[in-house]
What does this fold into?
Amino acid sequence: MTWKRIEDGLRAINERGLLREFRYLESAQAPHILIRGKDILLLSSNNYLGLCNDDRLKTAAKDAIDQYGVGSGGSRLATGSYDIHRRLEQSIARFKETEAAIVFNTGYMANVGTISGLTDKDWVIFSDSLNHASIVDGCRLSGAKTIVYSHADVQDLERKVKENQGAPGLIVTDGVFSMDGDIAPVPGLADVAHHYGLLLMVDDAHATGVLGSHGGGTSDYFGLQDAVDIQMGTLSKALAGEGGFVAGKQLLIDYLKNSARSFIFSTALSPQMVAVSVRAIEIIQEDKASRILLMENAIWFRAKLKEAGFHVMDGITPIIPVIIGDALQTLHFSLKLLDEGVQISAVRPPVVATGTSRLRITLMATHTRNDLTQAMEKIKLVGGQMGII
Ligand SMILES: Cc1ncc(COP(=O)(O)O)c(C=O)c1O
It folds into this structure.
């Protein structure tokens, strides 16, 4: 009976075109990858600055292995804290212009641990309707009353805040929305937070290293470092490593160290991954040129998609959603593109709302114009064959 339920559940997922499968890479994460020995153009990586295969980061990892070995051997509060963890946390705090920072093993764990460690049933959380699953899960785990406001709608947020005053409160939002690629209205959110005495948390997973004059993310982009109380981010996307972090006041970080269960009850990140992030932050701050290239690629590609007649969501970030609508058709599009040598993910429910399935294109600074021209031709070819354009 129990196994039958699982079997039926999997079949139903498949029938709705929602089954997910692995595509195994046989080379480094870069504009060109090998899948089953075939050269494929990759347009769905979070390796925004192309650092995953960077020699400087590989050297940092190798040096750290020589110095520290491989595993960390313990949780951070037991025997798994190395001097290099401290260096990384200090460097994140400088990068994000905050007093302190704390590193988690993943961005997912940073969100879940921070929200559930900070808030409880006495709190109210105001959460954007398109927030990442790790924020949603953190809210659920916290036991706090969670009120979802319409996507990026400051007026709706304020109305809901007014109706729910009197309890300690947190406003939480993605900085750059992972499936839509738009930027949160951080100035408006900060005004509401300030006016009503709430904390503001921004998840800069997709903005860190990408937005802002120093690559510091949405707070840097808007010049609002002081107005965002909790700057969350990942080390796993533009920074090309693994891990997540929270930057903010020393008081916040000390509290999370003692309350975030996903931080406390998990083995620390290995020293070599930490060393990669230390070096990546240095590179990102020095290398403005890659950020500019990335933005130029994003502007060019968005314009070409629109010109070709695709339904593309507006924006400036390297996350470019092409709305197809139907889940099966989106999957079909993605599979046909793979046959043509282009990898673009089909994003379907439950990740996005029913009827808004999409090809989620993400660009890298290291894509050449030639790569992008070739990809565009294939997208137009398949789009034409399927009657989408
Ligand atoms: C907005 C957002 N927050 C958090 C995460 C989780 O980060 P990580 O992949 O480092 O666990 C992701 C990535 O998938 C994300 O897109």
The pocket of pyridoxal-5'-phosphate is lined by residues 106-108, 111, 132, 134, 174, 178, 203, 205-206, 234, 236, 244 (CB under 6 Å). The mean pLDDT is 97.
